[in-house]
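Session log. Operator J.P. requested a structure for one protein chain; no other inputs attached. Running the standard single-chain path with token output.
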Amino acid sequence: MFKRTFWRNHVEDQDGKVIQQGTLLEQDQFNRMEVGISDSNMAANIIHIMLLWFGRRLGVLETSSNSHDTDIASIKTLNSQQDTRLAALEKTTGSHTTDIASMKNTDTQQNSRLSALEPEVAAEVKEVTLKNGSKWPFGINEVSVALTKTRKNANYGVNVYVKSYAGGRLGDITVSGKLTNGFKLKHDGSAQTVVVVVRVTGGMN
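Structure written below.
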């Protein structure tokens, strides 16, 4: 029996925190839907053929009182035709089984590729506090941010989100000095304290 999937939206708040984990739009889900649709269509075709077969046999039997011998020959002909159609349907079913095996093999290959991509798209999220050392603009400092997981190269992305600030105006926040194990942040505004959330992705290939 086909197991129904209840789909859910993926929801995040303004800080990127996941509020509700959505249903993955992946090949396993879609391929299962395709197999279910294909099986339902095949079942409908089989039922349709059987209804036609029974209808024709009933029609033949209703007129058998006038020409019994002719009706028997007609029934044999119908049976032969139906056997031919059923044989063709069985061949199609065998082809369908082959198609499912091919789809499963493709799923395995795709899963391997997705596993290889997971480290690249996995995000590292940190909360960092930036402080000015003295009266603006003379107290602008750079803050070094260490990565929890060392990257294979410095071609990673750093997205910065301001969580809060106090003691002055918010300025620009720049990222510099990217290395495989960390980078630097600098705030040029007059705010004495700025709390940011950084999201790091990539750099794993």
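Operator note: The first helix runs from residue 27 to 62.
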